[in-house]
Every structure is written in C-alpha cells, then in structure tokens.
# Entry
Amino acid sequence: MTEWADQEALVQTALDRFGQIDVALANAGFGATRGFLEETPEFWKTMVLTNVYGCALTIRATLPSLQESKGHLLLTGSVAGRRALAGSLYSATKWAVTAMGEAARLELNGTGVRVTLIEPGSVDTPFFDSPPRGALEPDDISRAILYAVTQPPHVDVNELLIRPTSQEN
# Structure
C-alpha cells in the first residue's frame, strides 16, 4: 500500500490481464491501542502511512484507468472515521479516509466515476484479537460493496455506514 512502485505495478498487472479496471478498492489498514502514550512513534508512523498515504496512492494509481472505464472507486473507512474515539490515532486516520472519499468524489464529479466510502463497524476479522460479540461477518460488508457497485451508472452511493445491530457506538 505504501510503495508507489508497487501500486503502479499492481495497476499495470491488472491492465495487462483484464484490459481495464472497473472497480478499485483501497482496503488495507490496521489499528493501534487507544491512548496517546501507547504504541511507539514508529508503529504510529507505519499505521498512518498505511491507512492514509496508502489509500491516497491507490486513488492516484487507479484514477486514470477508472476515468477511462467510468469505473468505481471504493475506500474503506470505519465507524471510527465518523466520530472521535478517546485516545485514538486510528480514528484520526479513518477521518482522513472519509475526507479523501469526499475530496475524490468532488474531483471526479461529472466524469462518470463513482466513489463510495465503506464504513464498517465491528467485523469478525483478524483486525481484532477477539472480535466483539455480535460483530458483522465479512460477507455482510461484501454484500454492501456489491450493492454499491451494481447500481445504475447514474447512481453514486457515496457512503455506507454498516454496524452490527448490537454495536452501541
């Protein structure tokens, strides 16, 4: 995610194999222990570079192809990117992804490229050491993504905030 040459190579590989890119999803990211005295500065740096810079590189690398195909750009944000969490630098990175999604939407307005921000709550994935009780399943998020990308070309689902029914915040 954080190496420009790797992003360019991935796009070229997709173009060589499939001829065009219809959908791009920036989904890599990880969290940190809450508390500004927790984790090391190096850990934070890696997280910020992955969650924010990596997302921006995905946009940059895929944009020409998405414009050509009038494709769909999807960015994975988080419920944490919609409200501040005490002591959470992770939350700040996901606020940045929320802003990037809107900035990309504004830049691409009128080009035919659609932009969707996917904002999951708790999902039973390796992101959590022990997923919260009642967490969503990965397929729940996949169905939401499929919903967004299968809308008619004139419909742009800008944000999908998806929480388990038992998630309080």
